[in-house]
Amino acid sequence: MPLVERQFSDGKDTLTVTADYDNRLKKTIRWTVENGTIRIRLPRRVRKRDVGPMVDEIVEKVRRQRARARRQQDFDLQARAEEINRRYFDGELQWHTIRWVNNMQKRLGSCTSGGATDGDIRISERIRPWPRYVVDYIIAHELAHRKHPNHSKAFWDYLARYPQIERARGFIEGIAFAEQTEADTLL
Predict the structure, then answer these.
(1) What is the pLDDT of residues 78-133, one digit of tens each?
(2) pTM of the predicted model, to two decimals?
(3) Which among 127, 125, 139 has a CA at the least distance from the CA of 171?
């Protein structure tokens, strides 16, 4: 049984927080956020009476970071991602936010797994004028990372549900060629 286990509201989401001792930790507290759960691991030297305030501090930090991400959310991109999720992934994927960013010059998109920004998807502003099927492929690619946070065979098999994958990758390979780089470095 964890020292702390409770739920709290965060916007439209309900998150769970658990805290427990970890004998491997000597000095520092470690925490992760993944799939709606904040898991806090504490060294044994932390007194039980100090656990509550530490948990509250971490929860507040996560709330602030998630609120900031929600303020930056792009609702048109969110609707597009929801449609792609429904159409190609049976609506089974969940993420926190999706938005355009202008600080991504090399990569076309990214999806955070773990940490306070777990489930935040960023799409490079530079691809906004690209053909819709290519942008949708990038969105599908980042959504698929919610199930497979890697580029394993299982990831590529799952992403293959998107029907225009070869056409979109061909477009991206053309861009990569023009930029004298490898297409895989963009994804």
Answers:
(1) 999 999 999 999 999 999 899 999 999 889 999 988 777 888 999 999 999 999 99
(2) 0.78
(3) 127
* Opening angle at CA 160, ends 155 and 165, nearest 5: 115
Question: Residue 130 has what pLDDT?
Answer: 97
> Which DSSP string do the residues of 25-71 spell out, in sequence order?
-SS--EEEEETTEEEEEE-TTS-HHHHHHHHHHHHHHHHHHHHHHHH
Contacts (Cβ under 8 Å, ≥6 apart) of 137: 162, 164, 165, 168, 169, 172
CB 18 within 8 A of CB 37: yes
Percent of residues, the chain, with pLDDT higher than 90: 63
Residues 62 and 79 in one domain: no
Q: In the structure encoding, which two tokens stand for residue 145, read together?
A: 């990372």
Contact 143, 110 (CB under 8 A): no
Of 51, 71, 91, the one marking the end of a domain is 71
